[in-house]
DNA sequence: TATGAATGAGCTTTCATTCAT
DNA sequence: TATGAATGAAAGCTCATTCAT
């Protein structure tokens, strides 16, 4: 069995993502991680502290999954289309739970600036990756906006329909952009 | 002074939107509405029940504000651009709190199907309005995705930057669409 | 439709007996009686007041049912045996709810002396009827004790077994008593 | 001072028995046990859970008191008579509060099957003890019925009169039974 | 007479956190 | 390092009753 700290973090990976932050109590976490309460507070200053570590781990995990999924792509266009397929793959895997960062952003009071900062930072990193791939600033923003919207709306409607439509849109955008 | 039911609903309009659902307790609502606890439960079966009434009122309010804001538009293009300006207006007015429907969707457990249904229904109504204005199905979905994404990302980054970029994008899309 | 007061009383006849006193709220009573809350308090000073009226009505009802059931008896022995059969009949009719007087006695605080008095009074009336029929004081007490015990234990075990056994016992007691 | 769990249980031994279940709030229990509310719920899943533990403790206590009281008896007859004297002793000690099991049975909704089961089980254990002592099945049931009735009616009338009469009855029954 | 609106006091339960060992 | 015990504060909700109309 792995170490307590790791078990707590792994448990939060499941619970925070599936149930959200406020709906997941410390008690449930320590029970499912099989760790004592005092042990929890030995490793994490507070629940908010765990939340931050959770975000870091979740981001690493999500990015590496995405990179894995798109690694075979030979062209930029193919890579982007695959990244939208990745959303479909994740929706199926995680039952349309959407994005942990956006979900938790919504339920955390605005005065918890540290948590909101880390959410923003990770999301900005994602956006940056679009801008790195596409030198055209407007086009990068355009695709990023569609990407975020696909995560959101597929969670909302519990359907991949808009992701499929977005793939057509993206295809069009990239082809007309290359033709210039 | 207005009637208790109205005061409760009005208070929820402020608190649910600004603080979210879980962070807003019954106690705070009744205190700020200046109503007794039993009186609250005379008018609303439960907190979830109030949430549903809140959604209905919020949707009516938001739509009427939007229609007001865009009413002067003479062309479809102008109307859409104004609807993005409306998001900027609301961000300023409501301090980048984004969309109550999406915010609360994120923090409500999935098994509260009645609440999730009303969120989906209202959001679907919004999406429908795009499809009514634009016969081109893909184009309507495209603009709708950008619109939702603008609400979301401007809340996330506390900035109207992506809304401004979207206006350029939308302008382009509509002009090339009309030229066909 | 009957008058409000009557409807309230009739509703309490069902609810107090089936659910007990504390588990039956005023709200449920007025709803099922289709009467306004203020109307309730017009007719009854308090819930306790209704309880007393309920006891009076319940007692009258129960006694008249018992007399009906045993009216055909030609001998004293037959009458007593029929009164035990009556308990079986009531258990079937009322799903082993036992005696309202004893049930409610158990859940009313001891300092509500008025309610406890009326319970005692009605129960004493029942006991007196045994003593009127049987001049032998000990024998009357004996049968009365068995009778109460049958009500109680058949509710407890949800079974008429001990009533059946009691009929044999009573038969024996009365026959040996007459032979003296 | 003893441990919280023990203090809670001991307090419930007094309050549940004296006031009943519904009339005894968690607040009163924790105050008289000098324990915090959260501490209560650390040790007991719910009030119903405490009720079950209370029943187990009460039953052990009651049986051991009964055995103590009757331990000196040299004949079966003496033992039974002493067990009726025990009821008088308990009435005086506990101010005619009767039987906790029957009292609480009356005020608990029928759908709480777990609680009703434990009541029935303990009561069946008591009844079994009569059948173990007296091989004659009818006689055992007879004495058991009288015994339960004595507990009940002495609470109802706040008097030991019927217990005293029962002692005469029991004496007679046992002597005529032995003479056969 | 009849009523819908309103209430204070109470209920059981859960929360994230700390402390003594 | 690790832990079981304990907590103050707050959660959502229900009670029998009264009052203004």
From TrEMBL, chains A, B, C, D:
Keywords per UniProt: DNA-binding, Transcription, Transcription regulation
Every HTH tetR-type domain range: 2-62
UniProt cross-references to PROSITE patterns, sorted A to Z: HTH_TETR_2
Transcription regulation in keyword set: yes
DNA-binding region (UniProt annotation): 25-44
GO MF terms held by the record: DNA binding
InterPro entries in the cross-refs: Homeodomain-like_sf, HTH_TetR, Tet_transcr_reg_TetR-rel_C_sf
Name the UniProt record assigns to this protein: TetR/AcrR family transcriptional regulator
């Amino acid at each position: 069995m792995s170490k307590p700290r790791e078990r707590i973090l792994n448990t939060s990976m499941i619970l925070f993502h599936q149930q959200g932050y406020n709906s997941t109590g410390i008690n449930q976490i320590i029970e499912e991680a099989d760790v004592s309460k005092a042990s929890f507070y030995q490793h994490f200053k507070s629940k908010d502290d765990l939340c931050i570590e959770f975000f870091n781990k979740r981001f690493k995990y999500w990015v590496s999954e995405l990179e894995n999924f798109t690694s075979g792509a030979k062209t930029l266009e193919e890579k982007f289309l695959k990244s939208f397929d990745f959303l479909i793959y994740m929706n199926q895997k995680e039952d349309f739970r959407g994005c942990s960062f956006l979900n938790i952003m919504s339920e955390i009071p605005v005065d918890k600036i540290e948590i909101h900062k880390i959410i923003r930072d990770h999301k900005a990193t994602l956006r940056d990756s679009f801008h790195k791939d596409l030198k055209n600033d407007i086009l990068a923003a355009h695709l990023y906006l569609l990407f975020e919207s696909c995560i959101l709306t597929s969670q909302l409607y519990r359907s991949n329909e808009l992701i499929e439509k977005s793939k057509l849109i993206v295809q069009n955008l990239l082809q007309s952009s290359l033709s210039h």
